[in-house]
Amino acid sequence: MKATKIIGTTLTVLALLSLAGCGDNNSQNNASGKQSSSATSTKQAAALVVGTYQNSSKGSAVQLNSNGTGRYVYADPVNSDTNDQLTWKKTGNNEYTLNFADSDVTSPITARLSGNQLTLTGDSNWATDTLTKTTRQLNLDQFLAKKHDSGNESSSSQSNSSADPRRVGAMLFQYTYQGMPGRETFTCTQNGDSYTFSEGNDSASGITFKVKGDTVRYSVGGSADQKMISIGTLQSQTDAAQIDGMMQNVH
User: Fold this and answer.
1) SS3 184
2) CB count, 10 Å around CB of 233?
C-alpha cells in the first residue's frame, strides 16, 4: 500500500510539473506572438511613407526607400541644385525623422504624413515644404532636368521673377528700410553664391544675402548678424510696383 501511495504521489507531482511547463511555454509563445505582431505593425506603418513625393510649384522632390535611406532634391533657379542623400526612421504616429547628409541642414527634419501629403519642417534654417505622393515612382534626376528645362523656356521673364537676385535684393532693401530709398540708382554685385544690393555706392546701406530655395539669409551694412526671411514674406511685405520701379535702375 505504501508503495502504491508513493507511486501515486509521484505521478501527481510529475503531472503538475508537466502542466506548469505547458503554461510557461504558452506564456512564452503568447509574448513572442505579441512582439512579432507589434514588429509587423510597426513595419506596416513605416511602409506607408515609402515612395516618392513632389512639390511641382517649388521644384522639390523626395524619395523615401524601404531600407531607411532616401534622397531630397530641389531645382534651384539661382544657385546650384540641392541634391542630398538622407536616412529616415519612424518616430511617432505618422511622424518620421529625416537626417540629411548636408552641412547646411543643421538639425533633423520632421516629416508628417497626412493622406498623400508629406510636410517637411525643421529649424529656422529650413523652409517648410509640403509635397504630394506620386502615383508612380518619380525619377529625381529627370525631375530636376524638367524643372530646369521649363525654367529656360521662360527665361525672358526671369528678370522679373521673385528668385531673380536683383529683385530679391530690392525687396530686402525696401523691407529693411521700410519704404522707397532716397536715391534712384542701385547696384547688385555677386561674389560666389552671395550678392550685395546697395543704394548707389553707399556700402553702409548694403545688404549681403544668399538665396537657397524659398529662404533668404542676409546681413545689413557688413554686420555679422545673420537674419533669415522667406521670399513669400518679402513679397507680402513689400510693394510690387515700387520694386518694379527700383528694378529699372539696378546696375
Assistant:
1) coil
2) 14
Q: How far apart are CA 72 and CA 140, in angstroms?
A: 8
Q: Please, what sign has the CA dihedral across residues 28, 30, 32, 38?
A: negative
CA 44 to chain CA centroid, Å, is 23
Query: pLDDT tens-digit profile of 21-64?
Result: 555 555 555 555 555 554 555 566 567 899 999 998 889 999 99
DSSP assignment, residue 81? P
Q: Name the region of 51 (left: φ>0; alpha: ψ -120 to 50; beta: rest).
A: left
Query: Nearest 10 degrees: CA dihedral of 160, 163, 166, 168?
Result: 110
Residue in the block written with cell 506572438: 33
Residue in 236, 55, 237, 235 with CA at minimum distance from that of residue 160: 235
| Helix intervals (H) in the chain | 2-47, 140-153, 165-177, 231-237, 240-247
C-alpha count within 13 angstroms, C-beta hemisphere, residue 18: 6
pLDDT tens for each residue of 52-95: 999 988 899 999 999 999 999 998 877 788 999 999 999 999 99
Burial pattern 61-96, b for ≥16 Cβ within 10 A else e, equals bbbbeeeeebbbbbbbbbbeebebebbbebeeeeeb
Which position has the grid cell 522667406?
230
pLDDT of residue 152: 53
Whole-model pTM: value is 0.51
